[in-house]
Design goal:
Radius of gyration: 22 Å
CATH superfamily of one domain: NADP-dependent oxidoreductase domain
Helix content: 25-40%
Keywords: NADP, Oxidoreductase
GO molecular function: oxidoreductase activity
Number of strands: 12
Protein name: NADP-dependent oxidoreductase domain-containing protein
Structural class: alpha/beta
CATH architecture of one domain: Alpha-Beta Barrel
Strand order of the largest sheet: 5-6-7-8-9-10-11-12
Family: Belongs to the shaker potassium channel beta subunit family.
Strand content: 5-15%
Organism: Hericium alpestre
CATH class of one domain: Alpha Beta
Shape: globular
Largest sheet: 8 strands, parallel, barrel
Order of helices and strands: EEHHHEEEHEHEHEHEHEHHEHHHHEHH
Length: about 400
């Protein structure tokens, strides 16, 4: 096979033609691969960051790992996110203390978004990871694209333009050549799905990300994205970042159920503690310094809901769960809630939030509770919450034999 030299990389002619045919983000005359001289000439800072001295050798410790959906990527059962904390309420050296504690206790996955603190969250995390000196191959970095960091008609959403430019800007803030996973932070109903899937697939082909996923998409939207990806031979989403906790189950357990069977979709769960409600801290009002106190605008509806009849009912559920956790499992209700989400076989990772190193360590005690969630304990939890989503209707027909083949797609 004949070879050609493209931007300092010798590649088979067929390979060069393949990448030229992808449009190259509007640059048709240059092979823009992450390993090319041209790429590093455009991004000298990121090249320098990749070659930094390794100061910390990651150790898995007792952290269990799972596959991210159908992919081969292994992710920790508990990861750490920057929403509302890193770059917002937590800045400077305290961020480094939190990240260092997480790494020292087996967490090597960090979740970000361009919109978190208008990009400052990504900047803080990128700075800290560089200063700590952990090898890039040893940690998993994710970000999300949709809301952007500044006003402008094309600085938000899921157009091909914003997806590609948004990812490149996120990489600059994170001080890295690539993210392991890039998520579509919401679905964009003003952009053709084919354009969205093609753009994320292009990002992966260029080595700017290794996988892509969705966040808070409907099952119909995820199905459409998969159909388009399979039709064109593009990369399909492998994960959905969704809200999932003991008080919110219909979408992750009901609506997404066919997707788990058909595509082996995995979830990266946020708000597993229902914004702190499942810690019991709001049983008697909103404490000073709590998340609802420091983020009143973000959680306006949730604050109002606390005093509603539904909110009062949820607090009573939390009190019953607290009694079960303390009396039968010898743990906090927060540990029970985190372990319950992690116990779900469709959960790839549960994203923790923390404002102090001590909070990271406390949340990780949920690892000890997971094996305690026996079928008997799970039944008691179900009786307390009483909100398990129902399966598809049987219309009065008797169930099939449990060992028979089920058509679930």
């Amino acid at each position: 096979m004949r070879q050609q030299r493209a931007a300092g990389v010798i590649l088979p002619t067929l390979f060069v033609a393949q990448y030229k045919g992808r449009g190259n983000g509007g640059i048709d005359n240059e092979l823009s691969l992450p390993t090319s001289r041209a790429f590093h000439a455009r991004h000298p800072t990121r090249l320098a960051n990749m070659s930094q001295e390794v100061k910390i050798e990651y150790q898995q410790k007792d952290m269990p790992f799972r596959r991210l959906g159908p992919s081969g990527l292994r992710v920790p059962v508990f990861s750490l996110g920057g929403w509302l904390t890193i770059g917002a309420t937590v800045k400077g050296d305290p961020v480094k203390d939190i990240i260092k504690t997480a790494i020292e206790n087996g967490i090597n996955m960090f979740d970000e978004a361009e919109a978190y603190a208008k990009g400052e969250s990504e900047r803080e995390l990128g700075r800290v990871l560089q200063e700590l000196g952990i090898r890039r191959a040893d940690f998993i970095l994710t970000t999300k694209i949709f809301w952007g960091t500044r006003p402008g008609p094309n600085n938000a959403g899921l157009s091909r333009k914003h997806i590609i430019e948004g990812v490149k800007e996120a990489l600059e803030r994170l001080r890295t050549d690539y993210v392991d996973i890039v998520f579509a932070h919401r679905a964009d109903h003003n952009v053709p799905m084919e354009e969205v899937v093609r753009a994320f697939s292009w990002v992966i082909d260029q080595g700017l990300a290794y996988y892509w996923g969705t966040s808070e998409w409907t099952a119909r939207e995820i199905e459409e994205a998969n159909q388009i990806a399979h039709k064109h031979g593009w990369h399909a989403p492998v994960a959905e970042q969704c809200q999932h906790h003991l008080l919110h189950r219909e979408r992750p357990e009901g609506e997404y159920a066919p997707l788990y069977h058909k595509y082996h979709l995995g979830t990266t769960v946020f708000s597993a503690l229902a914004g702190g409600l499942l810690t019991g801290k709001y049983n008697n009002g909103i404490p000073d310094g709590s998340r609802l106190d420091t983020n009143k605008d973000t959680f306006k509806e949730r604050i109002e809901k606390l005093t509603s009849e539904e909110g009062k009912k949820q607090i009573e559920i939390v009190k019953e769960l607290t009694a079960l956790a303390e009396n039968e499992l010898n743990c906090k209700v927060a540990h029970l809630a985190l372990a319950w989400v992690a116990k779900n076989p469709n959960t790839s990772t549960v994203i923790l939030g923390a404002t102090t190193p001590e909070q990271v360590l406390d949340n990780l005690k949920a690892l000890e509770v997971i094996p305690k969630l026996t079928p008997e304990v799970l039944k008691k939890i179900e009786k307390i919450v009483g909100n398990k989503p129902s399966g598809p209707p049987s219309y009065g027909r008797p169930p099939l034999d449990v060992f028979g083949r089920l058509f679930t797609s």
